[in-house]
Amino acid sequence: MAEVASVTDWLIDSDPSLRWQVERDLLRAPQDAWETTRRRVATEGFGARLLALQDPDGQWAGGSFFPGGFDFHGPEAADGAGQPWTATTWTLNSLREWGLEASRLEGTAELLEANSRWDYNGLPYWAGEVDCCINAYTLANGAWLGANVSSIAQWFLDHQMDEGGWNCEWVEGSTRSSFHSTLNALKDLLFFEAATGGDTALRDARRAGEEYLLRRGLLRRETTGQIVGPWATTFAYPFRWKFSALNAVDYFRSAFLYDGRRPDPRLEDAVDLIRAARQPDGTWMQEARLPGRVWFEVDVPPGERSKWLTFYGTRALEWWDTRRVSPRAEL
């Protein structure tokens, strides 16, 4: 697989949730071709499997963020056990990120409004709660499904840190921004803006959050210049909530294409890290897997070649190396 063409041949032989993105972003296929593949997400493979697991009340696994009946004091809640990835929010995230048409979930927004409550204080689903990352996911999922999430959009304006980012631990008193929380907020603020048009205040908040990460080169503590943590240089799919250089560069690619901006030179160290992780055959390896209950695996175990990571890595480098600008590009 030394030739790029053979890598794309390998990638195209994938689940529709990945294949349509390869067709659109790497092969530059005509829109009608990749849209035809994208529609298959609802009827084949990973997307169809998740759709079939939806509960009659609109949820998945009987819960909003954790499965219904989750034992918060049991083995699954122990340090290092991860968390379950089967409940409603995580499932919606996957379906949205895989390109499922919102019409395939017609009525789900209303069902969740009526039936789903957050584990935190039983708050209504589309009103969000206190966790920054949960609110980010809900903002994007609500915009996707047509729910009223305007109060969550305002929440991000009200809870932005002085540094420009966000932190899920603000409720415990933290006043410092977090790499993880900020990236999750940015990804979903961008989705919300693209879906609804956003407004000046939210756009300014997004740009301030971007600047928080850019000042640190996506990798380093501003105070010492040291790598912020091993997670920043570890590549794993699904990304879930976790920050990595690849996850972050992928966000900035989307944001800069959407805004019609050229890549910021402060991304260079993170891009170099992505490039260094590319194998001689043009692929990227799965380096970790977040622990926790899943409906089914969607990528390979650690130590194997990952189609998802190879797609994201190839797309990031192609964007960076050609410095493409495409105003209002589709996310």
Key attributes of the depicted protein:
13 helices; 331 residues; mainly alpha; two-stranded antiparallel ribbon
Notes on the protein architecture:
The chain has 331 residues and is mainly alpha-helical. It contains 13 helices and 2 strands. The mean pLDDT is 94.
Beta strands, count: 2
- Mean pLDDT across residues: 94
Class by SSE composition: mainly alpha
Radius of gyration: 19 Å
Total helix count? 13
Order of helical and strand elements = HHHHHHHHHHHHEEH
Secondary structure: helix percent: 40-55%
Strand order of the largest sheet: 1-2
| Poorly predicted tracts of residues | none
Distance between the termini: 29 Å
The largest sheet is: 2 strands, antiparallel
Strand coverage percent = under 5%
What is the general shape? globular
Topology of helices and strands:
Layout: H1 4-12, H2 16-25, H3 31-39, H4 45-52, H5 88-97, H6 108-115, H7 132-145, H8 150-158, H9 179-196, H10 200-214, H11 245-259, H12 268-277, E1 284-285, E2 305-306, H13 307-322
Antiparallel strand pairs: 1-2
Helix pairs in contact: 2-3, 5-7, 7-8, 7-9, 9-10, 9-11, 11-13
Give a quick precis of the structure.
This protein is an all-alpha fold and 331 residues long.
